[in-house]
Amino acid sequence: MMAVPVIVIFDVGKTNKKVFVFNEDYEIVYERSARFTETYDEDGDVCENLESLRSSVFNALHELLARKDFMVRAVNFSGYGASLVFTDESGKPLTPLYNYLKSYPLDLQNEFDKKYGQGDRIAAETSSPALGSLNSGMQLYRVKNERPALFNKIRYALHLPQYLSFMVTGQAVSGLTSIGCHTRLWDFGKQNYHPWVIEEELDKKLAPLMTEDQAFDVELDGHSFKAGPGLHDSSAALIPYLINFHEPFILISTGTWCITMNPFREEVLTAQELDQDCLCYLQYKGKAVAASRIFAGYEHEQQVKRIAEHFNEHTGFYRGFHLNAELAERIFQENAEKTENLKWSKTSGFDKKMLNRFKTAEEAYYYFILDIVKQQFVSSRLVMKSKQLKRIFVDGGFSKNQIYMNFLARFFSEMEVYAASMAQASAIGAALAIHEHWNTQPIPDHIIELKYYAGKIPFKPTHL
């Protein structure tokens, strides 16, 4: 049997940790999932178990390198952002991997604002709203101010994807997608670290910058292969679209957060847009990506429970729904309003509606999805300033929801709206980022499956 050339991708999410093996056609030929028991930091807050993560990566690598049916040519990593690993000179972690949901001390935030001016200016220049520990730069600032002795021992502060790579390569780098992920570290106008970072000498704790289309030479268990520097998972998920589509588009990546990404916007974000939960990411090659976000997936989970309880249904009642065109059209017409009258809000507002006004769970659900889509429309429009934009791609959970997709197509009737499906977008993006370092074949054109939704009801989605 001939060994199949493959790349191994470790995709580390907040809940699930996965390893995927792709062949040169980007087909999954092996996968495994794991969940680790969380540990606790010195304050008793839950955090990632770094030792379990390390053991899992190396156990999987040893096993895959030993297989006769695979020829491992490369390894790369995709991981969640806003999390830093502080290492000493030997590369050993000095602290737990602090949870990005850990509360941030208000007095320290106020001290920062007093020293560097109110947050609006910093937010605008770094395209990062003040998000507490979700701003990883503020995590490092906290260590410096609260634990100076520990700060002095830190050789590198590595974002999680780059730490995963560091474990295998021994090369400490700062990836652009991680540095540009709402960290408050990066000045998007100057394309460098923000002056406050340099004044605080935090840049001396950050590893050399690296675009994430590069790779290192690695030897392990008598095998030689390439290893990428790792990528922030949301930015990795955008890569297949950037490679496959060259006309301007936006991607609405739906999950717990629904994030609209526009890689083609040139204008910097305004203070008002930042206040409305907009931010910027960096692409793996360094270009800025304007993004807006709503907490729609989480709200969907909460409101589905509420509807199910009211109508005495199980919480999965909506999964069997096919589009009821007559009901969708009636609800859309009854709630028709000029799009310019729609206002941005943190939630859809459906939680304020009395459920006894609806006859069935189905009707309530349609009204709820319409409210979500209205919220999505306003949020997405915040970052859609380019007149050249013609296409919207939607991936993730809502892309499979025909009710959502049809309402969305109605609101964006002047654009082409597509539901996109792709097996493991973040993992494939991490593989594609270093394609030239391991794959001898051209990038296939079948990675993304599209379904077109017309901006009218009733509909017949078209498979492309």
Notes on the structure:
By secondary structure, this protein is of the alpha/beta class. The protein folds into two domains: 4-229, Nucleotidyltransferase, domain 5 (2-Layer Sandwich), CATH 3.30.420; 232-464, ATPase, nucleotide binding domain (Nucleotidyltransferase, domain 5, 2-Layer Sandwich). Helix content is 34%, strand content 23%. It is built from 16 helices and 23 strands. The chain has helices at 50-66, 106-116, 119-126, 136-146, 148-153, 160-169, 176-179, 195-199, 233-244, 271-275, 296-310, 325-334, 361-381, 402-411, 425-433, 435-438, and strands spanning 4-12, 17-22, 28-34, 39-40, 46-47, 70-79, 84-87, 156-159, 174-175, 186-187, 192-193, 209-210, 216-220, 223-227, 231-232, 249-254, 258-262, 278-282, 288-294, 391-396, 416-421, 449-453, 462-463. The strands form six sheets. An eight-stranded mixed sheet has the order 18-19-17-16-20-21-22-23, with helices on both faces. Strands 1, 2, 3, 6, 13, 14 and 15 form a seven-stranded mixed sheet that branches. Helix 12 crosses helix 13. The relative contact order is 0.13. Residues 459-464 have low confidence and may be disordered. It comes from Pedobacter antarcticus 4BY. Keywords: Kinase, Transferase. Pfam families: FGGY_C_2, FGGY_N. Belongs to the FGGY kinase family. InterPro entries: ATPase_NBD, FGGY_C_2, FGGY_N.
